[in-house]
Design goal:
Radius of gyration: 19 Å
Number of helices: 7
Low-confidence stretches: 5-12
Mean pLDDT: 92
Strand content: under 5%
Distance between the termini: 11 Å
Number of strands: 0
Length: about 210
């Protein structure tokens, strides 16, 4: 209690919230770019993949800047380990999306099926939630109720992604494709579902931070 009161009187490094906002916007941009990859014709796909890579590279720069700033910061708006975990979870979501076209190429997956598109639709919804959620970290006590609602929404969307994964794997097994096609599609399903996991991890972290601050 005394530590919390002391921290409230000290100047804080507020730029971390701005960096989280930028990372959330990059998750939204990456989801849109990945959707464009999935919808593109084969001759257009390299250009769409390159656009996704540019988003990922820019997001990596933000994550590295945030990590450097954390190392140098004297007082942080909340616990250092939580800041680092948020940086990593947000960056991981983008990295996973960037990996999807590469893995599709590795396994010769040329067409992205309906479950893959449903995953991306859910990721886009989670990204919209994150874009709203991250600025609220600048005034946690005042925004606690809205933060709780948005974190719950991230969890609900992740639950929907779990259902998509189960249904997709069940259909894939029933289809009995050749081994390479089976492995490739399964890996893509699991990779896309992992993006929703990482977005939900962000929600869990923010919920924990809110409990500590309020």
């Amino acid at each position: 209690m005394l530590l919390r009161a002391f921290r409230s009187l000290m100047p804080k490094e507020e730029r971390f919230v701005d960096q989280f906002v930028e990372q959330a916007r990059h998750i939204a941009a990456a989801a849109i770019a990945l959707e464009a990859v999935m919808e593109s014709a084969p001759d257009e796909r390299p250009q769409k993949v390159a656009a996704l890579k540019r988003v990922e590279k820019d997001a990596d720069r933000i994550a590295k800047d945030a990590g450097r700033d954390l190392h140098r910061a004297f007082i942080t708006p909340f616990d250092r380990s939580d800041i680092l975990s948020l940086i990593n979870a947000l960056d991981d979501a983008i990295d996973l999306m960037d990996e999807v076209p590469r893995h599709a190429g590795l396994y010769g997956v040329e067409a992205f099926d309906e479950p893959m598109r449903r995953f991306v639709a859910l990721i886009r919804q989670q990204a919209d939630v994150l874009v709203e959620l991250m600025p609220l970290l600048g005034a946690i006590a005042r925004n606690a109720e809205r933060i709780d609602h948005l974190c719950g929404r991230l969890s609900d969307l992740e639950d929907e992604a779990d259902d998509v994964l189960r249904d997709a794997l069940k259909a894939l097994i029933a289809e009995k494709p050749d081994m390479i096609a089976f492995l490739g599609r399964r890996e893509l399903y699991e990779m896309l579902e992992a993006v929703t996991d990482r977005c939900d991890d962000v929600g869990d972290l923010v919920a924990g931070i809110t409990l500590d601050q309020v």
